[in-house]
Structures are given as structure tokens and as C-alpha cells.
Amino acid sequence: MRLYIFHRTSYRYPSPVTQSYNELRLHPLTNDWQKCISSTLSILPICRPKSYLDLNGNIVQFFELAEEHQKLTIEVRSDVETILHVNFEEFPYGVNLSTLAKMERVPEYRDYLQTSTFVEINPEIWRTAVDIQANSSDVFETAYQVMGFIYQNFEYSKSTTTVETHANEVLKIRRGVCQDFVHAALALCRCLGIPARYVSGYFFDSTRDRQMRGAEASHAWLEVMVEGHGWFGLDPTNNRVVDDTYVILGTGRDYRDVAPVTGSYFGPRPSEFEVVVRVKQVDD
């Protein structure tokens, strides 16, 4: 599937600001599941961004605006080709939870088994995770049950949480948006010893009737490691296994590692803030 993505983030300030330094994680990755054909970044006021790869292999673009300005607009237009890499008739069942003990000794997975900025491993969450696991002894089945539990028991609400809301709070109030649902799922999976990481990106609502939650914004889901099969994406916001309608921007321990736009500046808080995202399928 070939997808075109338009992403615009804009800020307006009540008075001029200066020394604005920003990091962007808005450039789609190229990996075994997708190919970024092109990605064009435009910034107003005009500046020359630079880029680097972070410790998670994500593409980071950064720029600095030293001069005074009252408006900042960041636009990214991307063309991405995705590949259906999941066999929906043959999910990776058959890997026993007992195999997870050795995951702790693998450096590649260690960060995804521990507490992070928005995710905590504690006895209370562990008890909830064990209840969700029930009689399952299978890694993928257990992770799938975690996804289903969140989808069935959590309310999708845009006005309840902020980007700083911790998984502990989400698990108590059982409300939030995709970011919150992913943090809750990460906490539950990690408590059971399942390596789980946060994924930032977009998805195309192939139902064409806007039934999917989060289709008109940046999206988030998690990936769990199933030994012998690799990372598998699960979307607790929509109770779906990730397929070729999803585009990955980056992966990390939680939202802090992959926030689309982060930065600092001298001046007042924005008086206006807007994010516009459009994803459409492109005919080959």
C-alpha cells in the first residue's frame, strides 16, 4: 500500500519569542515493513534543519530559531510504501511464557522490560496483568488479551489526559487516548516479562467511514517481542493487529522517546496551537 501523509504543527504566541530549539521525529522510517520514498520538511520562519539517528534508530531533525518570532509552523509531507507483513491466518502462537526469562539477559530487549518515564512496574499493575493473563501460557495470546482488555474496558476520551499522564493514572481512571492506552499496555506486558515498546506513527482508515479511532491525528501503538517471530504490533485503541495501513515514525520505551515535536524557547506560552494530520492512499 502506498500512503501520502501530511502533518502540520503550528504555534502562535501572544508576544515575540526567541531562542527556539526543536527536535522533530516526523520522518517515517525505512525497514522491513515500510519504505519511505520521500519526506519533505518545511519550517516557517525559514531555517536549515539538521538530522541524526537517536539511540533507538529513529530519525531526528532539529533546528534553532534565534531571532524573534510570533508564529512557528512545521509541515511534513511524506510518501511511504508499506508491506503487509502479518499473516492474519497464522499469528505467532506457540511460544510459551517460560521462554521470557532469558529475554532479560538480551541487551536489545532490556529497556523494554523495565520502568520508564511514563511506565512503572509495580505489584498492583502486576496483579492486574496476572488477572488478564488468566490461564494463558502463550506470549502472543497474553499480549493479545492485554490489548483486548484495554479496548473493552477503557473509554476513548480526548479531554481527560495530557501528554504527561502516567500509565498508573490511566489504569486507575480507564480513560484517555491512544498514547495513554499504549502506556497502560506497556506496563501490563512488562509486568509479565513480555518485552514491549512504544511506537509512534500514523494509520490509514481503510474502512473509509471513519470508524477507526485516531485516524485523523498522530497515532500510537505497541510492539511486543515474540521469540522466533520478531516484533508484532498491537493497537489497543482499535483492538487490531498492526498491518500495512500503519506507518512507523519511531519506537522507544514510551512517549518521551518518540514525541513528534519537542523543544524549548524563551517567551510566553502559545496562545494558539494546532495539529493537522491527513493520511490518504495513493494509487500506484
As a percent range, the share of strand residues is 35-45%
Biggest sheet, open or closed, and with what strands and sense? Answer: 7 strands, antiparallel
Count of β-strands: 14
CATH architecture of the largest domain, please? Roll
Round the mean pLDDT to the nearest integer and report it: 93
Walk me through the structure.
- Strands 1, 2, 3, 4, 5, 13 and 14 form a seven-stranded antiparallel β-sheet that branches. Strands 11-10-9-8-12 form a five-stranded antiparallel β-sheet.
- It is 19% helix and 39% strand.
- It is of the alpha+beta class and 284 residues long.
- The radius of gyration is 19 Å and the shape is globular.
- It starts with a strand and ends with a strand.
- The protein has two domains: 2-83 and 259-281, Sandwich (Immunoglobulin-like); 97-258, C8orf32 fold (Roll), CATH 3.10.620.30.
- Helix 3 packs antiparallel against helix 5 and helix 4 crosses helix 5 (178-191).
